[in-house]
Amino acid sequence: TPDGAISVESKEVRSFADRFPIFKKPFLRGVVVLGESLVLGMRSLAYSAQMAGEEDDALSNREMAGTMIVAFLMAVVLFVVIPTGAARLLSEVTTAPAALNLFEGGLRLLIFLGYLGFISRMKDIYRVFQYHGAEHKTIHAYEAGGPLTVENVQCFSRLHPRCGTSFLLIVMIVSILVFAFLGWPDLVTRVLSRVLLLPVVAGISYEIIRLAGRSKNALLHTALLPGLWLQKLTTNPPADEMVEVAVASLAAVLPEEE
Q1: What is the percentage of the chain residues whose pLDDT exceeds 90?
Q2: Are 100 and 184 in contact (CB under 8 A)?
Q3: What is the largest distance, in Å, between two alpha-carbon atoms of the chain?
Q4: CA 171/CA 194 separation, integer angstroms
Q5: First CA to last CA across the chain, in angstroms?
Q6: pLDDT higher for 13 or 154?
Q7: Chain centre distance of CA 44
Q8: How far apart are CA 54 and CA 38, in angstroms?
Q9: Alpha-carbon distance 230 to 224, whole Å?
């Protein structure tokens, strides 16, 4: 907050999967986790902005929904419409569906990397990414069983295998493989199929990153190294007061005995 205090808001969260247990099954749980993470993330950022004195009023549910719809439409244009539309340029060279899908996937990946590189240079986003680094360091310290002090937490890496950045990179790669089976239909069909199959791609990607976070397999961890490298764009070294906030956040959700 403006006076340097840490404001913590804790609420009980009941997952959609708790009401409908079938969504706890593999390949379905990833879609629920992704959706709930987006909603909770938006609400947390809005709360943070309000506590920091940057916003006078909290976002209403309608404003939150509107913001997410606009963001989703922008993402569809940027990461679906533009890459698949531009891939038609390659059709003058080859009409092989596999080659066109690979070209489209490569374009999508380049746009994604360019987007991350661009926003990471923005002052406000740089600060958000510092808090992202603080979160990772704190989780590392907790998983290592050490004390959750600023000094100890700062010793850990700001890169983590179960990060959302790694998840998004896996989504990009899995989407290339999934869409390759669809051939190369007309533009409208391609756009609709990419959007409608997003839950399938997200479900597969979630299982991969979940496995990577628990597995000790060296080959699997080597394959996921690009995701860790990409986190150098989306995490920044945090200041000590940011680590204090991350520790307070983690403490708010730990069981009482911990």
Answers
A1: 58
A2: yes
A3: 65
A4: 12
A5: 26
A6: 154
A7: 15
A8: 21
A9: 10
Cα gap 140→145, rounded to integer Å = 9
Overall average pLDDT of the 208-224 stretch: 80
CA dist., res. 44 & res. 50, Å (int): 10
Q: Which amino acid is at 233?
A: L
Q: What is the pTM of this model?
A: 0.85
CA dist list (Å): 42 to 63, 145, 178, 181, 247: 11, 30, 29, 34, 20
Residue 12 to residue 90: CA distance in whole angstroms: 51
Alpha-carbon distance of 76 to 61, in angstroms, equals: 22
Assigned token pair, 190: 């391609």
The H-assigned helical ranges of the chain are 16-19, 29-51, 61-76, 82-86, 97-119, 123-143, 150-153, 164-179, 187-196, 198-214, 218-223, 225-234, 240-253
CA distance 194 to 180: 11
- CA atoms of 6 and 22, how far apart (whole Å): 38
Report the alpha-carbon distance of residue 214 to residue 207 in Å, rounded: 11
